[in-house]
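Worked example

This section walks through a single chain of length 164. The input is the sequence exactly as stored; nothing has been trimmed or padded.
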Amino acid sequence: MIYSDTLSTELGVIRIEANESAITRIGFVEISDFQEQTSACDLTELAKTQLSEYFSNARKVFDLPLFFGNSSDFNVEVWKEVLSIPKGQTISYLDLALKLGNKKKTRAVARANALNPFLIIIPCHRVIGKNNDLTGYAAGLHRKKWLLDFEANVIQTTLIFEHE
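Given that input, the structure is written out below as tokens.
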């Protein structure tokens, strides 16, 4: 059984899919493709709660069971490394490839990010071009920019608040 639910955000509608034991996909749904057919479950509700907390700045780390399905070992390795990028920070595709041990895999790292089935949860929006260029994001560069600006502003606001 596949369960699904949606969450409306400032960036658009996010569709969350799950099976009996894990989240299987999280991504934005374009309005033209959107169909309001949902069959929620505890896992989709948990994901909605955590995403809502993220957007209200109450969550920095997600705690959800993820099912990677047929994903390659390399892609999963890339996504696990992406999970280590702190909120409000970025890394280049090249630097990510170097962290994985091979700068020649920069394009493969970019491809793995493009195939990320868990947008926002696995924060591939934090991976940027080597000159701080915003390149590639499956949900659109406008969303990538918004997410990076949102996270940067949240971090700055938190730091300012802590120093008062």
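What to look for: The chain has two domains: 3-55, 73-163.
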